[in-house]
Amino acid sequence: MDKKNALRAGAVAAGTTLMMLLMSSPALALTRDDGDDPGTGLSVMETLGLFVVAPIVLFLVIAGLVMVGDKSRKQQG
């Protein structure tokens, strides 16, 4: 990739990131909407389980299924 294409790709990536940040700013608003009922918050362990442990377990399960499927194909050939 030459310098011009690299510069163009960088500019597109930076522009896209900037536009996404600008468009998502209302999501950070502190005002409550009508009918908003957020419920109770998550504990630290629930948060870690949901956003750290669950994706790792899901990745391992999918990777394991792919490896099992791949090994069975190699044995048949």
From TrEMBL:
Origin superkingdom: Bacteria
Transmembrane segments: 48-68
Signal peptide range: 1-29
Keywords: Membrane, Signal, Transmembrane, Transmembrane helix
The protein's name: Secreted protein
